[in-house]
Design a protein that fits this description.
Layout: H1 3-18, E1 34-42, E2 48-56, E3 61-69, H2 72-88, H3 90-99, H4 104-113, E4 117-118, E5 129-133, H5 141-155, H6 158-164
Antiparallel strand pairs: 1-2, 1-5, 2-3, 3-4
Length: 165
């Protein structure tokens, strides 16, 4: 073994001794990841309409939701909460939205409790940001920065873009 590998093994072993029971290996996924597509637009009343389309591969289904927010910062805060809600409630949403599809009112009510609405529009905007996350895991903070930048660029008014040229 090379000296670098030996040193790495020593460091890992010291970490195991000093931190018993701590998982030092990175979390491995089985390749199944929830795919989120997010878009943001301003409606006629000046509110931000945030649309989220999530593809849950474990049950092979897609859920489209949206919410309105009065400011960009509130929209981003609510988007973070919505992503967390969708991540942690995948099974319930599937059960009431697909498996028990006869009671669509319940799944819509469940979404409304989280401040979301079912999005029945057929097409999703082309200008969107995509995020892929492991099922039932928390939304990491480092994912939200690029998402915020992309959505900010997508709602930038045409006048400010023209003025910048």
């Amino acid at each position: 073994m090379s000296p670098d590998v030996i040193e790495q093994c020593r460091g890992q072993r010291l970490h195991e001794i000093n931190n018993p029971g701590e998982d030092i290996m990175p979390y491995r996924t089985n390749g199944v990841r929830n795919a989120f597509r997010c878009s943001m637009e301003r409606n006629q009343s000046g509110k931000y309409c945030v649309r989220i389309q999530v593809r849950f591969p474990r049950h092979a289904w897609t859920l489209a939701t949206y919410f309105l927010a009065s400011s960009f910062d509130r929209a981003m805060k609510k988007l973070e909460q919505a992503l967390g809600f969708l991540q942690h409630n995948e099974e319930k949403l599937w059960f009431w939205g697909v498996d028990r599809a006869g009671d669509v009112g319940f799944s819509a009510e469940f979404l409304r409790e989280a401040g979301l609405n079912l999005d029945r529009r057929a097409e999703f905007p082309r200008k969107c940001a995509s995020v892929s996350l492991s099922p039932e895991r928390a939304v990491p903070a480092f994912v939200l920065g690029p998402l915020r930048r992309h959505l900010a660029e997508s709602v930038e008014s045409p006048r400010s873009v023209a003025a910048g040229d």
